[in-house]
Amino acid sequence: MNIFNAPKKVLIVKLNRLGDTVAFLPTIKTIRESWPRSHLVFLTTEIGKELIEGSKLIDEVWVAADRVKTFHSFLSWFKAIKIERFDIAIASSDSSSLVALLFFLSSIPIRVGFTNPKLSFLFNRKIPFSKDTTHTELNLRIVEGLGLSPKYTKPKINISEDDKRNVLQMLSEYGIDKSDRFIVLHVGSNRPSRRWPIERFAEVVNYLVGKYSAKIVCIGGKQEKGLVSSLESIVKRHYIVNMSGKTNIKQLAYLISRAVLFIGHSTGPLQIAYIVGTPTVSLWGASSPIIWGPVWGKEKHICLQANLDCLGCEEAECPKGTLECMNLITVDMVIREVSKLLKKRQLYIRNEDVY
User: Fold this and answer.
1) Which of 32, 73, 226, 278 has its CA 20 to 30 A from that of 79?
2) Which domain, by its residues, includes 122?
3) Are 20 and 267 in contact (CB under 8 A)?
4) 77, 71, 72, 85: which is closest to 13 by C-alpha?
5) What is the pTM of this model?
6) Nearest by Cα to 252 from 190, 339, 163, 165
7) Residue 340: other Cβ atoms inside 10 A
8) Within this chain, do residues 49 and 175 fall inside the same structural domain, yes or no?
9) Which residues contact 354 (CB under 8 A, 6 or more apart)?
10) Per-residue confidence (pLDDT) for residue 345, from 0 to 100
C-alpha cells in the first residue's frame, strides 16, 4: 500500500555523468510504472538528457549544463521550480547540499533525499546512505521511501530505426557486416585513476586479433580520440575500428548491444553494457565494483581488480602517485578472463582461419 497518493507533479534530480544516470534508470522506471498518470520532470545534464529521452520514462526533461553550481544558475532553477508547484521532489544518492536547499526554498511538500549531503536535514524523507551496495540498488531505496515496491527489472533504452541504420552503416564502412561478430573496447575514462596503460590494451588487442581474428571496435567520446589514436599507433592500424566521438548515446547503446564482448573500465559505456546484456570484462581501481558493478546477469560479467586496501578510493588522481591498483592488473589476467568468457559463451567458433 502506498503511503502517498499518486502525486500530480514530481521533480527528479540527477545531475551527473552517463554511468550514474544509466544506473539510476531502474529507479525512474519503478516510479513511472507506479505512478503512470503523474507528470514526471527530470533535471539532468546534457548527456543525461539524451539517455532519459531514449528511455521514454519521463514527461519533461530539463537540462542544467553547469549542474546548478553557480549562484546565477541556482537562482534561475529556484524560480523555475518554485513556479511549477511540485508535490514531490526526489534527489539521487549523489546529489549535493545545493539540491536539498533548492527543494527546501521551493517549498516542495515532500522532499526525498539521502543522508550524505551536509544539508540533508532539509529533506523531510531521508534515506540512509551506504557504500555497501550498488548505486542501482541504493537508489532503488528511494522507491521504498515513497512507499512503493522497488522493481529490479532492467530498464530499456529505446533506439530508433534511424539510429540503428546509422550504426550499421558506419560499421559497414569499416568492413563489418550485420552478421559479423566484434568486440567493443573502451580504453578511456574521465578520471586518470581509472585508466589501464594503453600499451597493455595494445597487447590484448594483438592477442585477440592473432588468436580469434577478432574485429575490435573502439568507442568513447570526442575527448578520448587521442587515447584511441595512441592505441592505433602501437598496434597495426587496420586492427582497430575507431568510432570514438562518432555516435550519440542511443547509437552507442545499439553498438554495444551488437558486440559479443565489452572490454573497458568502470565508465558509462560499461553501465550501458550491463543494461543491454553484452558480456563484459572490466578493470577496476579507483572505482569499486561493489558500488558500480553489475546487478543483472552477473555470471557474464567479470570484474578484475588487484588485491589492495586502497581499492575504490574514488579519487581522480592516485593519492600514492603510483596507480598501483591498475598496474597490478596484468595483460595475462585480462587475456585469461576474456578467453574464459568467450569459450564459456561459445562466442567464437574456429573454422580454419576464421573465428
Assistant:
1) 32
2) 9-145
3) no
4) 77
5) 0.89
6) 163
7) 12
8) no
9) 213
10) 63
What gap in Å lies between CA 74 and CA 250, rounded to an integer?
30
**Positions of the chain with pLDDT lower than 50, given as ranges:** 1-3, 348-355
Residue 232 and residue 46: Cα distance in Å, rounded? 30
For 61-88, how does the pLDDT look when each residue is reduced to its tens digit (9 = 90+)?
999 977 888 888 999 999 999 999 999 9
Burial class (CB in 10 A: 0-12, 13-18, 19+), 238: exposed
Q: Which three cell numbers stand for residue 163?
A: 539510429
Q: Where are the alpha helices (DSSP H) in 35-124?
A: 46-55, 71-84, 97-105
Beta strands per DSSP E along the chain: 9-13, 39-44, 60-63, 88-91, 110-114, 125-127, 183-186, 216-218, 240-242, 261-265, 280-284, 301-305
- Number of domains observed in the structure of the chain: 2
107-129 burial, b for 16+ CB within 10 Å, e for fewer?
Answer: ebebbbbbebbeebebbebbbee
* Residues 227 and 337 occupy one common structural domain: yes
CA distances from 97 to 24, 37, 116, 250 (A): 19, 30, 9, 31
Distance CA 353, CA 70 (A): 59
